[in-house]
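User: Show me an example of a complex going from sequences to structure tokens.

Assistant: Sure. Here are the input components:
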Amino acid sequence: MPTSTSKAAKETALYDELIGRSRELTVLGSCSAVLGWDEQTYMPAGAAAHRGEQLALLAGLQHDRATESRLGELLSVLENSSIAADRDSIEAANIRQLRRDYDRRTKLPRGLVEALARTTSLAQQEWITARKNSDFASFRPWLEQVLELKRQESQCLHETLVKERRAAAKPAHPEDEPKPDAGATIYDPLLDQYEPGAETSRLRILFKALREELAPFVRDIAEASRKREARGEGVKTSILERSYPVERQKMFGEAAAAALGFDFQRGRLDVSAHPFCTGIGPGDVRATTRFDARQFSDAFFGVLHEVGHGLYEQGLPVEQYGAPGGEAVSLGVHESQSRLWENAVGRSRPFWNYWFPIARRVFQDALHDVPLDAFLAAVNHVEPTLIRVQADEVTYNLHILIRFELEQALLTGDLPVADLPSAWNAKYAEMLGVTPTNDAEGCLQDIHWSAGLFGYFPTYTLGNLYAAQLFHKANADLPGLDDAFTRGEFSELLAWLRDKIHRHGRRYTPTELIERAVGEPIDHRPLMASLRHKYGALYGV
Amino acid sequence: MPTSTSKAAKETALYDELIGRSRELTVLGSCSAVLGWDEQTYMPAGAAAHRGEQLALLAGLQHDRATESRLGELLSVLENSSIAADRDSIEAANIRQLRRDYDRRTKLPRGLVEALARTTSLAQQEWITARKNSDFASFRPWLEQVLELKRQESQCLHETLVKERRAAAKPAHPEDEPKPDAGATIYDPLLDQYEPGAETSRLRILFKALREELAPFVRDIAEASRKREARGEGVKTSILERSYPVERQKMFGEAAAAALGFDFQRGRLDVSAHPFCTGIGPGDVRATTRFDARQFSDAFFGVLHEVGHGLYEQGLPVEQYGAPGGEAVSLGVHESQSRLWENAVGRSRPFWNYWFPIARRVFQDALHDVPLDAFLAAVNHVEPTLIRVQADEVTYNLHILIRFELEQALLTGDLPVADLPSAWNAKYAEMLGVTPTNDAEGCLQDIHWSAGLFGYFPTYTLGNLYAAQLFHKANADLPGLDDAFTRGEFSELLAWLRDKIHRHGRRYTPTELIERAVGEPIDHRPLMASLRHKYGALYGV
């Protein structure tokens, strides 16, 4: 059959061209990633303006290449080719995902992209000043501008999203009605940028169920905590605020990171003002943290968190580098990896069975008189507070649920920007029982909205939910995981995550990926069960 | 005159487009510079292959943009515009220099550029192995391949160079004969890439004159040195090989760099295996060094040297950034800045009048029993040796003169590659009185030829010649410079260099720039005079 052979060869050539273009775009993006990492770690202060010019040029080059009409042509042909016919193949997944990316990029007018870049850059500067002065009034017009642009962005992406959902919801029999939830709110296209396929309506149900269990649980812990403190038996978090020399923290953190499986031949750990992790490319994954010589846990759990992100990046399939099959699937799944290593592993008794004796030798001055139980109580202390990034793993999700509700209301306009501070404070009083005394510790605390990151917050809680489900399933699949941790061995768990999550890249949607890994739909109950198990014991609730 | 106004406005718009394109190219190149710096300083080992892919992509993008026909169109129009008519203006200089760059880039076929990149990349790997094993035979075929490609490169650039020289040599009266030296040897187009406008024939005359004075002077010093040693009065260089803790070396080096005027708000000093300095862009100039806790002078003078390069980069006019007017003019002039600060300033008695008391406090264990005179003798010790990068400032130029002769003979074919080791050894015996015992310390010692850098070596000696002339003139213009150094003040000298060299970018040719600064033609005598003055006193010759 010479005809079909030559047709197949032609399709393969087109597929290779598509992937080659995708790889070029990825490599170009990875150059920006190096510059971004450098900006946060080593760049001299005086280079800021020039760095902006460099990143803008690279972003422009990327945008031009990502929206070339040739990409659209290749996708149109390949979607109807035999390569795409085998829906379960990695090639078909790559075509699907590149179509997804292409449609979104080409739907945004260049003017809007540039206005967003410019306005959010200025708004972030204004936010820094506004937070410093706790001056919401000066930030308000900037937030209004950002919101207006994000509404436009949502509108541009709306049609594509609805079309995709209709296609996905297409009934098996043509005469059936399509499923009813193919529509989309103004929030959906923004959320979908960070968590592809996530639907606002489903998240609302999921988060409501979580809140109904979590809020009373937090109240119970707070109550138990107060009683203990009244008896003089409160948790001594002050043991974490002793002398922890920075060089030793660095050494200890790197030792733990290496033990979890982070490969320092293919990665680094540096210092930056705001901790992050960036996967630059194969063999190049860089995490950062910040050290305080009088505080142990921020840096250490920060390292475990960022290294959790890094392990995901290091586990992506190298042979798919440059194609969607070689990329992380969503922010929620990314966060599930960081939270799993930070909290489920790093704050567990089995982990510290192995590491605490070492910590006592490394930080002799600070820990010589501290028993393991007191240390575990301190690193797992629960207390409703005002600041999200300092929150413990139990109260953390309430901070997110507040933001999830408020940012939807801001986008629809149901909540006027002027009313944000009072709405914020009311929510905190209601859900956490604490009230900000000023906007710096209230609605000005996070950078996200000034940066245009609407729809981003829920991925933190999705990450926590995914992490709990994954860790529950890993323990079921790998009996003796606790014993392994106690021996300082983490490779079994990492291999399991590599197999269930990392190696798949963007082959499946986030929901499909998690459901395939755990064999169940996304659910809030595994998280609540694990919190009840651990904190029930610690606080006697 | 609406017509001429609108013509001027049109020309201005075209000029702005030209400079805008030049700036984009410069910014793109500066992204590669960040990646190159990172590769040498912090990049994890496992990222090497990916870094190669990143740099190749950026280089390809740069090449495409640098050879776009629109650039040629703009240059053709602007060369005949009123903007270019005022030859002394910075705008006219920018047009001239962009024409120069464009002609050279477009004359090289893409196949040759790629073959050179590929072959020199492989040849450098082979060179590393060959040097380690002192195995010239294994490197020989690679050197032959590189030479063949460089001959082709020279041929491609030959016509452009001859045309430029003819134009420059055009007699004032059309009936006169053009000057005779408008031709070019095979070496000229390669040399011209690093030192624009330099001519092989003139360099031969200049270097011959230098050699005739320098070789006997080196012999006299060596003789005097032998006699002193026989009397037990030899220079004690061992005082530089005592305990010099790395952290203290870093602190001391940074203090000296800052005192010379290096702005750490707009620059950095890091560690790399091979010291270098890279000007990434406005506000971002990065030098590196390497430390050895048992050796003082390599790192310290390495810092002064690289910081000398850095001061030039920090002194380029920011308002011309992206245009030739904002770029360093040549490797020779660049080297003149590093050598001036390293040798003329950094190895002088006035410099150490101020810094030695500080050094004695910082390196108490090493220097407590060392008088200033012994220290000055040690950091200025002259001894003919085999390795260029370890050579003192007197013998250094003989190493260069050897390479200058040999690389011309290699290119013309007068010296077959197979005969290089014996020719090398003969030259060292003749000019320095030392003979390599193997090729690792002979003709395999430098990376340059494996990297295709033919025509590069002479810029080191040009740098030394320029530096001596500049320093001589600076002392004439600024009486009391020695006293200022003794007080630890270097800003007067830096301001003079900023005014005479840095602020001009590529406005003039290197020769014009130096001649304007010192008021005399390039000459070997100021260097010889300064060497005789300093080393005559030290060695009594």
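The lines above are the inputs; the final block is the predicted structure for all two components together. Residues 203-539 of chain B form a domain with the Neurolysin; domain 3 fold (CATH 1.10.1370.30).
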